[in-house]
Amino acid sequence: MIYENGVEPFQNIKSENIILEKIAKLKYKLADKIIILGHHYESDDLIQFADIRGDSFKLSQEAAKNKDKEFIIFCGVKFMAESADIISSDFQKVIIPDIEAGCPLADFASLNDVEKVWKEINSIVNEKIIPITYINSTANLKSFVGKNGGSVCTSSNASKIFDWAMERGEKIFFFPDQYLGGNTALAKGFDKKNIILWERNKKFGGNSKEDILNAKIILWDGYCSVHKRFSIEDTYRLKKKYPKIKIISHPECNNEVIKKSDEFGSTGYIIQTIENSPDGSVWGVGTEQHLVNRLQQMHPKKKILSLSKVGNQCATMSKNTPEKLLKVLENLDNGKIINQIIVKDEIKKYAKISLERMINITTKS
Length: 365
Ligand code: SF4
Fold this sequence. Notes:
alpha/beta, Rossmann fold, five-stranded mixed beta sheet, 14 strands, globular, binds iron/sulfur cluster
């Protein structure tokens, strides 16, 4: 695919046909035992083998629903596979094609750091604080949230989870993505002066005690480097070139980009909105490049461009390849399990509470 500036900066890595044929055969052979889940940001060559495609919320729901297969092969990043292990049945085993496929956003918040800040905030304020973790976080943070009366959220249900939290407490402590937390709070009408950022290398996170007492939303200072790369200049450039363009962005983008976007929402929302738009529509999309390319292929009568000139690819999602999926399947066929993701029982107990809480809040209302 050639981009609007005439270059081809993004390579959708192609695997040899022989690899793809072997995967198809083994998938058929092992069909009674395996289910393959695939995140939208994976490459075409890999996601074609997914029984179910989705964003993090849909895939966590599917992991909770599909109780009959012994092996859940998760083509996504590690925190997603951990969530699947937490929420699936005890006899099920979760496997990831590349055990190194992590998420740099999730790595922004460690349990130690979060506990330290939690104590510090609670030593200053007397009000009830509800912790909320974005699903893009490690299992032990989901456990922390479960223990402390909070919930997990995804980009598709953050608004509902904020409502739920504010019915139960006076403040929200949100981690690790400052942009999802900030964009959600602003869209819900929270005043900017009641939203503070906690910068970990500064005393009181760089805030005064008064700021902390007045805050309604306290944000961790993490971000997704893929979505952070979209800029307000990208929106100006595309709007100038395509006056009828509509910009749609993921809430992990910064607030300047969100403000200039016609729509914003989760990956699932982006897909649905573009699907429902009339032929001839022109879209500038602020999310991961594999998905943008796929949307263009699926809707040839619409023009679908990346918001970025060069396309933004998630390098860790791309660690999962058909070759690595084949290795997983060949091993399973030989009775061996490789790359299993196991969340320890003591972490699982409370992490399950916070994940199930999220699913219940979202599906009930
Ligand atoms: S796109 Fe961003 S949030 Fe999603 S897996 Fe990649 S680094 Fe993590």
